Amino acid sequence: MPDLHLPDTPKIPLARYLKQAKDDTKAQASVVAPDSVKVSTDSTMAMTEASSLDTWLQTAPQSQTEITIPENYNDSTPIKIVGPKTTGGNVLIHVGANAHVALQERWASSGDMLGVSVELDADEGAQIDWLSYDAFDADMVILQRYARLGKDVHLNWTVAGFSHNSGASLLTTDLNGSGAEATVNVGVLASAKQHIGYVTGITNYGEKTVGHINQRGVLVDKAHLAFNGVGHIVQGARGSDSQQENRVLMLSEAARGDANPILLIDENDVTAGHAASVSRVDAVQMYYLMSRGVPEAIAKRLVIRGFLEVGLSEIADSELRDELFKTIDETLVNADA
Amino acid sequence: MTTLKITDLHVKVKEEPEHPEILKGVNLTVSTGEIHALMGPNGNGKSTLAETIMGNPKYLVTQGDITIDGESIKDLGVDERARAGLFLGMQYPAEIAGVTNAEFIRAAINARRPEDDQISIMKFLKELDAAMDFLKMPEDMADRYLNQGFSGGEKKRNEILQMMMIKPKFGLLDEIDSGLDIDALRIVANGVNKMRSPEFGTLMITHYQRLLDYIVPDFVHVMKDGEIIETGGAELAKELEKTGYEHLKAGDANA
């Protein structure tokens, strides 16, 4: 076994988290998909093992689910993946060339210490809408999602982080093929004593690749959220673009937010940019809304919804949107009390 | 008829209590059915007056009162004042991403209605379409985020749109004409004139006679150094256009 390093996770004590033992229950994720999609469980699937984190995530007992979407698949009805109720798991998704697919993952697992690993690889020309809805009810979750995109693959990915756990979420995208494009939108609502960190990274390997990161987090109570955005353009990825925006809104005195944009640029012929902010509700916006007669509580809700909307705007599923907004409203009401 | 009455109003900036007062005893009565214009040199308290009436938390009333039909609104929050019938068309409207114009206006209308009698979406959209049409606003402005990326002129038009939809008793309009081209000015003025009725009163802050050619005021007031130093009819504005404010001194005769 080679000496494996941990990924770099500023402000997130990953090594300390990984010292804890994972829950030892085992259960399968469930998948709803048309017949043309191949689903196998506990196959000896080959997942990446490049870091100690990968090793930790893959160590048994861990359920394995492998989903293969054939070439030229074309169906806008989302393939639904629901995580096991009381444990984490590993999911491997292959998307064939020129497939047009929508994926909807939903995790509401409970437990003490869960490991979740989802890997997606996409072949040339695939177009993917990917929604990851995290509503974990566990104490601690270490989660890694890893996307590798071939030539001209377009990925439109939204991660809704509405969980109650502490821990870390690593969202990594490699733009391997030329012309690959990824937009990763992350909307997070954190409350109570949650202590959670996101490392959302996109690496441009191929020429003329485009990676955009948009992270929005709202904090209430004593929650602590760290957003790390990592845009990396490697040498040779000419004509590539890396943009990111990380914004945290704190609604209580005791909440703490970090937004760390990191740009690593090893090529000259590229465009890149970043923006970051950690702020409280804007008094000028509140005054404007309230000057039209909207009561404070509703005005606050509008500002917060609006703030998160930028991270969640790509969610087309109206039922899910309603559910998310309901969760936002409930969390705010409880936080005010 | 409803009456907005400002009596001996003294105001400071809350965070600068050691600084002198901005308003030093303003007296003004605006009744529904009347159009008042408030003019005067820059930096003499006109916007402060409008913002204080609306309840901007930035300002502190140190003396005097603001009443609607005899009831003091001085201790009401800004949203309560709005529901009591006040509307402030702001000089610099805030931009709010993620909240659409239509969604916001509907929330503002519903805030005035009981929980079990909220405006129906059909009725709302019909009224909104008509008002936007009147103000020659492109349809997509209903679905755009509130003031986000709006041009200066679009923002002003959007303030008038909100006023037309909310139908307040009093419209306080702070330089609603600044930054508008002639066509836009005419459209915005049409909007205000359309609201003119025995149930609606206006206090318009402006620097230019031009606006008053389109919205003819019943009263013109001149504010200087935190006080209203002169009051007259529409002809006063025309006179000031020729003479300027220089010759008027604070504390002088009050017509």
Automatic annotation (TrEMBL), chain A:
GO biological process, one term: iron-sulfur cluster assembly
PANTHER family in the cross-refs: PROTEIN ABCI7, CHLOROPLASTIC
Protein name stated in the entry: Fe-S cluster assembly ABC transporter permease
Domain SUF system FeS cluster assembly SufBD core: start-end pairs: 89-307
Xref: InterPro entries: Fe-S_cluster_assembly_SufBD (IPR055346), SUF_FeS_clus_asmbl_SufBD_core (IPR000825), SUF_FeS_clus_asmbl_SufBD_sf (IPR037284)
Record Pfam families: SUFBD_core
TrEMBL record, chain B:
Boundaries of every ABC transporter domain copy: 4-250
SUPFAM superfamilies in UniProt: P-loop containing nucleoside triphosphate hydrolases
Keywords: ATP-binding, Nucleotide-binding
Origin superkingdom: Bacteria
Keyword ATP-binding included in the entry's annotation: yes
Any one GO MF annotation of this record: ATP binding
Family that this chain belongs to: Belongs to the ABC transporter superfamily. Ycf16 family.
UniProt-listed NCBIfam families: sufC
Full protein name: Fe-S cluster assembly ABC-type transport system, ATPase component
Organism, scientific name: Lacticaseibacillus manihotivorans DSM 13343 = JCM 12514
